[in-house]
């Protein structure tokens, strides 16, 4: 089977991703109510009863809105670093002691044959992280809510077979948009969100002969469009002399209102 995954929903209104192998099934973030999460999982024919746990990237509401209720409903362990747990304890209500699991930033945890590693990112949260997933030679990386693409993050996610990468906003649309300037400044900062332009620049360094698909994720509904994000990234790569078609890399959609189809990481 190898690793397969589905981005259940991605965007400023809520985020969740399911990652599984033949002997492990993990949820990354719970950005919706428990009822909505059950519905999203059912669309991918997954029962919450089969989950081995929940990985948390950070404590912002679009990533943990239903975390406490969902974990209590299905008696699921939650994995997060200590600083994130300090915030979760304030926001999620009581969690059974056995389900409070600490996975420190940079830590590695095995779930059956699936190896999970967290890595630090730059965002205005207590201690935000992204994750890489390994099984054998297969590698999947999830990196969203990035103020900027640091060298350390690049080192962690390079040579991924599949990459889920933030492409949050078009800079021009954001500057002209309806948000107050203090919010715009926060989004544009090094602890905000990665723009289409920044995603394209980063991919110019990240793409290798191994990378087959890049999912552009966490798009703003007010200051971006998927077609624009893909066009911008494509154009930047071409300006750097990288033709996506020549590298056999495909830019993939994510959605705020429905899951992506199952994707097998090792699939060419």
UniProtKB/TrEMBL annotation:
Q: Catalytic activity, per the record?
A: 3',5'-cyclic CMP + H2O = CMP + H(+); 3',5'-cyclic UMP + H2O = UMP + H(+)
Under SMART domains, the record lists: Lactamase_B
- Cite the entry's keywords alphabetically: Hydrolase
Please report the stretch or stretches of sequence annotated as the Metallo-beta-lactamase domain: 13-218
Q: Which Pfam families match?
A: Lactamase_B_2
List, in alphabetical order, the Gene Ontology terms for molecular function in this entry. Answer: hydrolase activity
Q: Which InterPro entries match?
A: Metallo-B-lactamas, RibonucZ/Hydroxyglut_hydro, WalJ/YycJ-like
Q: What does this protein do?
A: Counteracts the endogenous Pycsar antiviral defense system. Phosphodiesterase that enables metal-dependent hydrolysis of host cyclic nucleotide Pycsar defense signals such as cCMP and cUMP.
Supply the name of the protein. Metallohydrolase
Q: What organism is recorded for this protein? A: Paenibacillus swuensis
């Amino acid at each position: 089977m190898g690793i397969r995954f589905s981005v259940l929903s991605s965007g400023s209104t809520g985020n969740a991703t399911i990652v599984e192998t033949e002997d492990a099934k993990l949820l990354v973030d719970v950005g919706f109510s428990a009822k909505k999460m059950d519905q999203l999982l059912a669309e991918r024919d997954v029962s919450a009863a089969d989950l081995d746990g929940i990985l948390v990237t950070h404590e912002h509401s679009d990533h943990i809105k239903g975390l406490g209720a969902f974990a209590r409903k299905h008696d699921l362990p939650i994995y997060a670093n200590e600083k994130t747990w300090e915030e979760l304890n304030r926001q999620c209500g009581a969690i059974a002691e056995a389900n409070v699991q600490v996975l420190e930033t940079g830590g590695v945890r095995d779930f059956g044959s699936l190896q999970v590693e967290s890595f630090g990112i730059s965002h205005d949260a207590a201690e935000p992280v992204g994750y890489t997933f390994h099984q054998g030679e297969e590698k999947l990386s999830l990196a969203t809510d990035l103020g900027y693409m640091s060298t350390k993050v690049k080192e962690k996610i390079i040579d991924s077979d599949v990459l889920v990468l933030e492409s949050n906003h078009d800079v021009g649309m954001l500057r002209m948009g309806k948000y107050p300037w203090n919010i715009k400044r926060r989004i544009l900062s090094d602890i905000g969100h990665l723009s289409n332009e920044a995603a394209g620049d980063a991919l110019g360094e990240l793409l290798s002969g191994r990378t087959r698909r890049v999912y552009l994720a966490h798009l703003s509904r007010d200051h971006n469009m998927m077609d624009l994000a893909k066009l911008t990234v494509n154009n930047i790569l071409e300006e750097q002399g990288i033709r996506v078609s020549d590298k056999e890399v495909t830019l993939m959609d994510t959605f705020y209102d429905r899951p992506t189809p199952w994707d097998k990481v090792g699939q060419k």
